[in-house]
Amino acid sequence: MNRYYVQLNDAGFIVAWSRVDVENHIEIQAKEEMFEKLEFVKVVNGVAEIDTQEQAAVIERALNAPLSHIDRLEKENAEQLLYIIDIEERALKAAEVAEQASKDNADTLLYFIEAGI
């Protein structure tokens, strides 16, 4: 267990961590892996403990939260990149078809020339 200094919200959950004594923080003991976990860690008798029900609620809220502006832009960017790839693949396929048609036309023209038609 390590010594940390934390700030609690009104519900008693940790909302800020520090390794040094900071104003408006209380001293607690916690395992290293708990350091910086927020909103679902409570202090019980001076020791940090994960509240698994609150942890599940925090995760649920995060999963159901609307996308931020940046997240929406990143999603739109990814969708546009996929669209561009699709267009490029279609253009390549069209070029291949056109090339094959051109070869077929050349073969047909050569046939007519050789046949004297």
What does this protein look like?
The protein is of the alpha+beta class. It has 2 domains: 63 residues, no CATH class; 52 residues. Helices cover 51% and strands 21% of the residues. The chain has 2 helices and 5 strands.
Question: What structural keywords apply?
Answer:
alpha+beta; 117 residues; two-stranded antiparallel ribbon; 51% helix
- How would you write the strand order of the largest sheet? 2-1-3
- Which strand-content bin applies to the residues? 15-25%
Q: Percent of residues in helical segments?
A: 40-55%
How many distinct folded domains? Answer: 2
Cα radius of gyration in angstroms:
32 Å
Mean pLDDT reading: 92
Unreliable runs: none
Number of helices: 2
- What is the structural class? alpha+beta
Annotation, overall tally of beta strands:
5
Largest sheet: 3 strands, antiparallel
Give the oligomeric state of the chains in this entry, treating copies of one chain as homo and distinct chains as hetero. Answer: single chain
Measured distance between first and last alpha carbons: 95 Å
Describe this structure in a few short sentences:
The protein is α+β, with helices and mostly antiparallel strands and about 120 residues long. About 50% of the residues lie in helices and about 20% in strands.
